[in-house]
Write a structure and sequence with these properties.
- It is a single chain.
- This protein is α+β, with helices and mostly antiparallel strands.
- Strands 1-2-3-4-5-6-7-8 form an 8-stranded antiparallel beta barrel.
- 23% of the residues are buried.
- A hairpin with a 7-residue loop joins strand 1 and strand 2.
- The protein has 6 helices and 9 strands.
- The termini are far apart.
- The chain folds into 2 domains: 58 residues, 434 Repressor (Amino-terminal Domain) (Orthogonal Bundle), CATH 1.10.260; 155 residues, Lipocalin (Beta Barrel).
Length: 252
């Protein structure tokens, strides 16, 4: 028998309650998924509004959280979530930016190993509760430093911005629109850990390649003579060679 799916309004209400419980208890979505004996993918999709909650999933979450998630229909109607991203991100709708959603092999020079390339995954998805694209990084060898944040897509510049704002500390990736292969190239501006606790502003070329077009991806620090190195190097070289970004080194 197929699983019983809750209504869209019920699913939105449950998602909001679960997010509030996660913030109040300061536990991760991964931890909740494990305690509820459901997959993290199921939980993420339900919280993002990409699939409805099922009755079975809701009961397991109630058991894990120790609180009810289903409420009487007599409660006040739940307001519709916003349809457009905030003006600060470009006021876009999901329909207008759905082509950006997906997983990307992400390449930049390694900050710790000269000549090596740092490879990881960037996932871009729609957050229905906040009406915006969000991104998160995975497959990083330095997992504690993986970034997440919002995606800005303004009409004026035609650029795409991956913005991290953690208590006022910013990291920014500026990318050109995808080419016909769906590849995006640009610049990453961040902070590099120098000597001791010193942090230094740093900029580097950046490439995001759809995972579906890149076979046999290798993550981590990639250096010669590893098989993926030359392919990764050629992709990063395109940032300068094809004019996707300019690095100014001072007056001639």
């Amino acid at each position: 028998m197929s699983e019983i799916e809750l209504s869209e309004a019920q699913s939105r209400a449950i998602a909001q309650t679960v997010r509030e419980a996660l913030a109040r208890r300061r536990i991760s979505r991964q931890t909740l998924a494990e305690q509820a004996r459901i997959s993290i993918s199921t939980l993420e999709k339900a919280l993002a509004g990409r699939r409805p909650f099922t009755l079975a999933t809701t009961i397991r979450l109630e058991e894990a959280l120790g609180q009810p998630l289903r409420h009487d229909a007599s409660r006040a109607a739940i307001p519709e979530p916003p349809r457009y991203a905030p003006d600060a991100l470009g006021s876009y709708s999901r329909e207008g930016v759905s082509w950006l959603e997906g997983r990307y092999l992400t390449l930049r020079p390694s900050f710790g190993t000269t000549g090596a390339i740092f490879a990881y995954r960037t996932e871009i998805a729609w957050d229905a509760s906040e009406a915006r694209l969000v991104f998160r990084e995975a497959e990083r060898v330095d997992a504690p430093f993986a970034q997440s944040g919002s995606v800005a897509v303004p009409n004026q510049s035609g650029m795409i911005y991956l913005v991290t704002n953690w208590h006022g500390q910013h990291r920014l990736a500026v990318l050109c629109r995808p080419n016909i292969q769906g590849e995006m190239y640009g610049i990453l501006t961040t902070l590099h850990a120098g000597r001791g606790t010193q942090l230094t502003p740093a900029a580097a070329p950046l490439a995001l390649l759809p995972e579906g077009t890149a076979s046999e991806n290798q993550y981590g620090r990639v250096a010669p003579p590893e098989p993926a190195y030359e392919r990764y190097r050629s992709q990063l070289d395109r940032v300068r060679a094809d004019g996707y970004a300019t690095f100014f080194m001072g007056a001639d």
